[in-house]
Amino acid sequence: MPFKKGPASWRRTIDYLKGGTLVFREKVKVCTINYHETLPESDGLRRFVFWHLAQIQYKNPQVQCVQLKNIVKTPFITFHTLEDDKINSIYVNCYKKKEHEILEYCEKLVGKTAEEIEREAQTNQANFGQGCSRYCICLVEGQVACPRYKPLPEFMRGKYLLSKQDELEEIRKTKSDEQALAEYWNSK
Amino acid sequence: MRVFKQIPGLALLRKRPQNQIPFSLAVGQVIKSSDATTREVKVIKMELDDYLKMYFNKSFVFETVDKNSSSKKGDIVLVRKLDKPLTQKKFFSIEKVLFQIDNIIDPITGKKISHDQDEIKKHLEQLSQLYN
């Protein structure tokens, strides 16, 4: 944990930032938080901003989170949504509410469920490449074998097409292209 | 090095990319009104510092189109990205005014903000009686 200074410095670790539970749906674009800095009615929202705002912004990098302070006396949160070229705005009243109540209410309104988050986190097993179970598609049955062990017929190779066209013509007098392909697939 | 500055092709290499916000909807504040239909808007975005793992505010200033000329200097405004930009610099247009700087209206209770001490006490006592 670098830089162990300041109040509650474990808020600035990556394990804490990844442990957020609020993931917005695709329609939500803007989230603005209105509160007052000294009045006692907006005490719950102040604690919500202290503990949970960095987690929300880390999980949703495409949403703009803005704080508007000391404008109006009642504390509230707004969500601006874009769906099918229509703009709506949702207001959530936070007068004298505690922070865990605000979090649970917002998850029900606007957040994705835990099952949907798990489904999107799983990777596709049909992928191949670095970091997957198979490094190349030549390992699968029915696909073209690795040309390192079994060279392709001459009319499919760039070496013969670009710079050795004389030898290609000689080969094409004895065999046609289709015969060469059939020999390739039938041989071991 | 003055010889190299006179070559016309080098100006393209020295052009820095425009700082654009990657949002399609945003909330900002009006700074300046130059024409009847153009306004300058300031928008804030939070960016992560890699070492401290903290978010700091970064501001972007750009020009927008205002068709009805309904906003003034100091208003808080909703801004939307256009499909076809009008000029080379105007990619956004003003959709809606959220808070006007002359009369600020509370969107939950529907009342105006007043600065008399008696009215403030009455407003607070009414709200505490409702929720207690």
Any chance you could write out the topology, listing elements then pairs?
The complex is a heterodimer of chains A (188) and B (132).
Chain A: H1 14-18, E1 28-35, H2 43-59, E2 64-69, E3 76-83, E4 86-93, H3 99-110, H4 114-121, H5 158-162, H6 165-174, H7 177-186
Chain B: H1 2-5, H2 10-13, E1 25-33, E2 38-48, E3 55-65, E4 76-81, E5 92-99, H3 117-131
Parallel strand pairs in B: 3-5
Antiparallel strand pairs in B: 1-2, 1-4, 2-3, 4-5
Task: Measure the end-to-end span of chain B.
Answer: 76 Å
H/E order of the elements of chain B?
A: HHEEEEEH
Provide the CATH topology of the domain at 18-105 in chain B.
Answer: OB fold (Dihydrolipoamide Acetyltransferase, E2P)
CATH topology of the largest domain in chain A: Glutaredoxin
CATH H level of the domain at 18-105 in chain B: which superfamily?
Answer: Nucleic acid-binding proteins
Which percent range describes the beta-strand content of chain A?
15-25%
Instruction: Calculate Rg of chain A over CA atoms.
Output: 30 Å
The number of E-state strands of chain A comes to: 4
Structural class of the secondary elements of chain B? alpha+beta
Terminal Cα span of chain A: 58 Å
Question: What's the total number of strands of chain B?
Answer: 5
Report the uncertain regions of chain B: none
What portion of residues of chain B is helical? 10-25%
Please give a quick description of this structure.
Chain B: It comes from Brachionus plicatilis. Chain A is an alpha+beta fold and 188 residues long.
What does this structure look like?
The complex is a heterodimer of chains A (188) and B (132). Chain A has 188 residues and is of the alpha+beta class. In chain A, 36% of the residues lie in helices and 16% in strands. Chain A has two domains: 9-119, Glutaredoxin (3-Layer(aba) Sandwich), CATH 3.40.30.10; 137-186, no CATH class. Chain A is built from seven helices and four strands, in the order αβαβββααααα. The two termini of chain A are 58 Å apart. Chain B has a domain at 18-105: OB fold (Dihydrolipoamide Acetyltransferase, E2P) (Beta Barrel). In chain B, 17% of the residues lie in helices and 34% in strands. Chain B has three helices and five strands. Chain B has helices at residues 2-5, 10-13, 117-131, and strands at residues 25-33, 38-48, 55-65, 76-81, 92-99. A five-stranded mixed barrel of chain B has the order 1-2-3-5-4. The longest helix of chain B is centred in the last third of the chain and has 15 residues, at 117-131. The model of chain B has no long low-confidence stretch (mean pLDDT 85). Chain A binds chain B through residues 2-3, 12-14, 17, 29-30, 32, 41, 54, 57-58, 62, 64-66, 68, 71-74, 76, 78, 80, 82, 87, 91, 93, 95-96, and chain B through 22-27, 43-46, 48, 51-55, 76, 78, 80, 95-96, 99, 104, 106-109, 113, 123, 127, 131. Chain A: It comes from Brachionus plicatilis. Chain A: GO terms for molecular function: structural constituent of ribosome. Chain A: Keywords: Mitochondrion, Ribonucleoprotein, Ribosomal protein.
